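[job 4417] fold queue: 2 targets
>>> target A
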Amino acid sequence: MTSLEIYNPRMTYNTAAVDYDTTSVDFWRYAAVETVQRLNLPPGASVLDVACGPGPAALAAAEAVGPRGSVLGIDIAEEMIALARGHAAEAQVAQAEFVVGSMDDLDVGVDRFDAATCVFGIFFARDVRESIAGMARAVRSEGQVAVTSLGPKFFSPLYGAFIEAALGEHPGLDVDVPWHRTEVPEVMRAHLQAAGLDQVEVVHEVSSLPLRTPQDWWRIATGTGIRRLIMELEPSAAERVREQNLAWIAEQGIDHVELGVIYCRGVVPAG
């Protein structure tokens, strides 16, 4: 069984939607806004946001393109789409629309958008290169495709501590997580080039996310793909892992986690 089959993104993120939304304030939103800013979108542009989650990148794009522009966000998880619609309504962003859909079978039209984004979702694709190619087909000639993935330092060092504690409770736990498929910058460069994009740029950045209290870490864990591993544990075992993680954070005096992010961008060839 592959890591994708184990993770079942639709079930995982329907279950984690609210916690993910809370976590996005700290991390996902930062990377989503950064992804959009790197595109330098002009007012009036149209944008496709794939695996949009609760909408941080889509709403950042909507702000960039303004009321004359348009944004379409799609996600496989219905609960994520509901959250995104709620955020758009709260912000009175009429130019952003959100629908349920899959990056494995994009059905949004051809040559329709000026740009497409996918932030922290491409590693769930059945075929990474084909999903990027599908995004490129939806974008007009000389438009941009931006794909942002997790880098090798993903929530270091706490993710490693979590895995050690989880394996202590469940030695047979499959920890082959999907984001390992896309955590190498040169692998991502090859994916974008194979998808037919030109002028490919790949930047790996490591930043720091402060932890106000040790409990912040467990909130992050339950609001990200790590939740799928937690769901594989018995409730009592998951609680012991939580307690062990929080105690380790306090003992080590850890007040932040490192965030490795790979920002990838390419241009649809003229033609």
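>>> target B
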Amino acid sequence: MKKYTVITGASSGIGYTSAIAFAERGKNLILIARREEKLAELKNKINKQFPSVDVVVSPFDLTDIDHLENLFEQFDDYFIETWVNNAGFGYHTSVPEQSISRTRQMIQLNVESLTVLSLLYVQKYSNQAGTQLINISSIGGYQMIPTAVTYGATKFYVSSFTEALALELRDKQLPLQAKVLAPAATETEFGEISNDIADFDYKERFSKYHTAEDMAGLLLKLYDSDQMVGVVDRKSFDFILSENRFEYGG
């Protein structure tokens, strides 16, 4: 049976470059995102570069929480060895100025969707050797950042949820590994969307930042490791692989 890697939010940024990085390793792919034309563009690019890789695209709005189980059921005939929950967006503005509707949409995507898809994957694959769940958090999921209170809270959830899940799986001696990747500033559409600025200049805003290609490489370092956390240090920009960073009461 063919094995597949699922990447959500694959139409741009870290999801897009990670799809190419996994394809370079010969991994078959299932790519999920809202923008069908971007998924088709990525599929064509991968098919040209890596013709032996099977690419399945699944256009879907992951804020449609009520239909996530239907989405997951579409992949019943595929063996999914890795599931990467990358889809998410930020919201950098002070709390008194936040839009309620946009904040709710962010929570739906960053927290609810990620949680439901994680549960569905773990419940089906926890006993399968060689499987991994990788959830994309942020350095904002490990330290508080000004003007990103609500966004940071969603990523603290992702980090703590994934770390605790990883430890629970170990305690039960189940082979599935759960891991969390926490990028710092990364040059993608994220800056424009989270700051609501059409032309967000990373060089002007940050003394150091990664490219999306850089982060795809770091994701693969985490994937290859036995560690559960991969964090980019916000000051040094060193990539640190470690065990859980939150205290565990088990």
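[job 4417] complete. Note on B: Residues 3-242 form a domain with the Rossmann fold fold (CATH 3.40.50.720).
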